[in-house]
Amino acid sequence: MTESELPPDVPPDAATRAAALREILVEANRRYYEEADPTLSDFEYDEFLRELEALEAAHPSLAAADSPTQTVGWAAGRAVSSLFAKVTHRLPMLSLANTTSAEDIDEWRAAMEEHHLGATFEPRFTVEPKVDGVAIELIYEDGRLTVAATRGDGTTGEDVTANVMTIRTIPRTLSGSPPSLLEVRGEIYMDKADFEQLNRELQERGEDGKANPRNFTSGSLKQKDPRRTAERPLTMMCYGLGQVDWGDDAPDSWSAARERLRAFGLPVAPDALFGLTDSLDVAQRTVLDMQERRDELEFEIDGAVLKVDHYALRRQLGARSRSPRWAVAYKFPPREGRTVVEEIFVSVGRTGALTPVAVLKPLPLGGVTVTHTTLHNRHEIERLDVRVGDSVVVIRAGDVIPKIVKVLRDLRPAETESFAWPEACPVCGAAVDAAEGEPLSYCTNLACPQQVKGRLQHFGSRRAMDIEGLGDKLVEQIVDVLGVSDPSGVYRLTLEQLSELDRMAEKSAQNVLAQIEVSRTRPLSRFLYGLGIRHAGESVARDIAKHLGTLERVRSADVEALLDVSGVGDVVAESVVKFFGEPRNAAVIDALIAAGVAPVAEEALVVEGVLAGKTVVFTGALERLTRDGAKDVTRRHGGKATSTVSKKTDLVVAGPGAGSKLEKAQRLEIEVLDEEAFLRLVGEWEPE
Ligand code: IVH
Fold first, then answer.
1. First CA to last CA across the chain, in angstroms?
2. Whose CA is nearest to atom 13 of ligand 1?
3. Does 143 share its domain with 233?
4. Whose CA is nearest to atom 22 of ligand 1?
5. Which CATH number fits the domain that encloses residue 651?
6. Which of 295, 546, 596, 663 is at 20 to 30 A from 398, Cα to Cα?
7. How many CB atoms lie within 10 A of CB 491?
8. Interatomic CA distance for residues 606 and 85, integer angstroms
């Protein structure tokens, strides 16, 4: 728009800004819907949209029918992708208004109260997860799935029937006696774990990764060949209806309709994630509870949806241009964002492994500010081709450490350079050993100060010797100032030495020494784990300690003796023998023994437990147990906890939000218990 064309009441900068915002949003829509490869995070998109809405509200002459504020999905007039046939929805597929605070929710209620007709306004609300996937409409005629269509621009979507037919959890024929026409709407999505794995595979093949499970889902639905879609582990959650010929048997509310859908065999939100209440306060608490449990769920949710339950009241309240008045989305803080890589450096770990780290322009994400992310290894840098100056998409999902999932190549500044991998250790300058084809390269100098520090930190860590007070800062000083070069040095530290260190009062020095003292008699498994033997993680260390009983026997065991330990294979056995055979390591262990370190034998192996010999998988949210706690309980009763369901799994413990693992367990007819039943089984259930 040039200035002379401006409507008279609009200050030029508002008009220019609105035009720019529209352009950004239209392009973002195109990238999102047509290419399944967004340029903006949801959060950024919402921010721009809100700003444009505010501008249009302040300057009504700026509003246009084809503004992104007036349309859902594709901007009106944009071509629906020509690959798939068009489907016109009998009833428009609307979007949801977003809120992010309790006040917003109160406002929502007040706005509804203004619009309702009755004497009193006493609605009942449902609360459901807002699944981060792709909206879809399924049309069942006489109980058979005939059409599946994307939302498109809300009026017209794309026919993706052939692809949707490959999704196992979507029934092709309904059970019971469904109405002659049933249009059901929901979200197609993918579990977080499946996304991670598929993304890794994609990038290993040299293709661009997807920023999140939603983009992957969207891409999967747009495959030309349904066989490709069939390979993707997609699933669905139904959250509403389109047109339905119920006859004279119509349910009067969404909660009632949901039960019908469930009886027809359609997937709906699990009961543990579905709230029904008269009280908006209770509804809000349910929302916050979902936000807290977000990380434990197997699938990504980006918010919760509050809806008026009764259809009669919904009809009265009606809709605005984009969204119904009777529903609102409460958006959780974003966990995906875009930022810029400011620097890439290489750090050295306790094994000497060189790990590249990206320093990021600080990015607030889901309640923390992300400033660094690991790039894992040389291959990862090459795979992403990430460079200093690049704009990148970072996600922080669940317990996952923030990571770069995608480089936005379009935004790469001119004259960037591929990262040059160091030829010498960046800490000590020693040669780097990089085996051909191996992702990791190592600093070859065992005395490299950074390696020494890493080994000491690991030795003293909570899961190893558990020496409280021996944190990163202290380790740094005892190596740099006191010249400690291996774990035995820790046991020779004196009060005088420690008290001289920076920020170390005599009292804290005494505490540290007391902690060091009690660690002399930790269980053998912790000691072995603390040595940081390659391939000997916590559970292997435990198996070895239990089987062989004493440090002397472990030290002198040959490969044969180690192979007798269940859970130990060739790689571990050889690594352990090699470790103890290395003269420097033998000297450190001698020195530890001389310094009074005397690891104690493990308690006898549990063979009598109810779970003896059983493999257990935990999935979904657990209320009583933490993940580590669940593993401990399993172990205490003789079982073993693993993370994937297979024919070898004996028992699956499923909590709210369980998804693909639970399905698999059911398919393989594996026993499934909920958390309470599991705790009762092992005799550890305690009523609250
Ligand atoms: S209800 C007219 N319920 O979020 C209201 N939507 O931002 C229709 N979504 O288009 C939507 N989970 O694709 C509803 N439990 C849920 C949802 C949900 C995810 C998606 C849906 C919708 C978008 C709005």
1. 66
2. 135
3. yes
4. 95
5. 3.40.50.10190
6. 663
7. 18
8. 62
β-pairing verdict for 432-434 and 86-88 = unpaired
Report the separation in Å between the CA atom of 600 and the middle of ligand 1, taken as the mean of its atom positions. 57
Q: Residue 325 in contact with residue 150, Cβ under 8 Å?
A: no
Taking only the tens place, the pLDDT of each residue in 14-67 is: 888 888 888 888 887 777 666 667 677 777 777 888 888 888 888 888 777 677
Strand partners, 138: 148, 184
d(CA 462, CA 574): 27
CATH classification at residue 9: 1.10.287.610
Helix (H, G, I), strand (E, B) or coil at 466: coil
Report whether 238 contacts 261 (CB < 8 A). Answer: yes
On whether both 305 and 356 belong to a single domain, the answer is no
User: Residue 179: which H helix or E strand, with range?
Assistant: none
φ, ψ for residue 202 (rounded to 5)? Answer: -60, -45
d(CA 144, CA 138): 10
Backbone angles phi, psi at 677, to 5 degrees: -60, -35
Residue 190's domain is classified under what CATH number?
3.30.470.30
Question: Tens digit of pLDDT for each residue in 312-371?
Answer: 999 999 998 889 999 999 998 878 889 999 999 999 999 899 999 999 999 988 667 899
Active-site annotation holds for 130: yes
Residues 341 and 279 in one domain: no
Active-site entry in 86, 130, 331, 614 = 130
Residue keyed to tokens 């005397």? 598
